[in-house]
Amino acid sequence: MVNLSSMLPLIPFSVQSFFNIAPSSPSPSPQQADKMSRPSTPAPIDTSCESGRSTPLSKTADSGYGSAAASEIDLPEVYFTKPHLQFINRQLQNLEPQEILRWCVTTLPHLFQTTAFGLTGLVTLDMLSKMDIPRPQMVDMIFLDTLYHFSETLDLIDRIRARYPNNNVHIFKPVGAETEAEFAAVYGDRLWETDGERYDYLVKVEPGQRANRQLNVQAVLTGRRRSQGGKRGDLPIIEVDEDGTIKVNPLANWSFKQVKEYIDANSVPYNALLDQGYKSVGDWHSTQPVADGEDERAGRWKGQEKTECGLHNPKSKYALFLMEQEKKREQEVLHEALKRVDLKS
């Protein structure tokens, strides 16, 4: 995973070459460059969901290059310091989304797209599908199935599969549950009402962390935009979260109007709920239509203080509690080990 603790130089093939800036370190040799541009062979993807392994919604891409999960190329890790992030954000800020995506695909290894199939994510998917550049990896999608999505959302996934047959979707569900009924039996009925933070952790945060771990995710494309309001108002183009994952928000500068115009102009399939007054769609129990003049995400958790599910804020009280318990267990194990050493001496 990406390490921000050490002040390491940016990898040679990234920002400098893309923005025509004189590199501060040598470029890769022709042999290395050839290795990076050589297509890899696609590989099959696991089909079991119960333990969190990914489920493809389409066959593995046969377009000449493999998925990020299946690539045989030895992709390097990427290191960004705070000055690097500030510099890159200044440069990316003035680019169109397609140019930002091009930079991401050619620069960031182990790149995935996290999506709940909202409008912004669909624009990103369509732009990626039309990107005609050599690349050593596909940008696979990661969908976190909370088990409480609208039927319209699940129907959209089938339509997306038909429209983009070469794009893989990895589905991750809560541990120990495949249906709403199973989730309620294991964790309690209407958990989102009795313990909202625990619910968010179980259906979004933990499956997301599991996806990153199993797929070796180092960078993700998100569908967040500044015009969505709330905590997203000052969203940067590129950021690094607390576990070191690079997050890129390629359409951060776009408005809802721009996104919808792109969807219509390119005939991109979208969630039928948007024609019923919804603008941001999540779980059925916490999503409502939006009134005229309201923020785009005003229909999410209406009447509550929360504006995010925890996926982009994993340090919830429940997550912190789990971390504290884990540290406590580690300390107890260490204490017992030291006691045994004392007894032997």
UniProtKB/TrEMBL annotation:
Residues 31-40, 48-61 have a biased composition (Polar residues). Residues 24-63 are annotated as: Disordered. This is phosphoadenylyl-sulfate reductase (thioredoxin). Residues 111-289 form the Phosphoadenosine phosphosulphate reductase domain. It comes from Cyphellophora attinorum. GO terms for cellular component: cytoplasm. Its EC number is 1.8.4.8. Pathway: Sulfur metabolism; hydrogen sulfide biosynthesis; sulfite from sulfate: step 3/3. Belongs to the PAPS reductase family. CysH subfamily. Pfam families: PAPS_reduct. It catalyses: [thioredoxin]-disulfide + sulfite + adenosine 3',5'-bisphosphate + 2 H(+) = [thioredoxin]-dithiol + 3'-phosphoadenylyl sulfate.
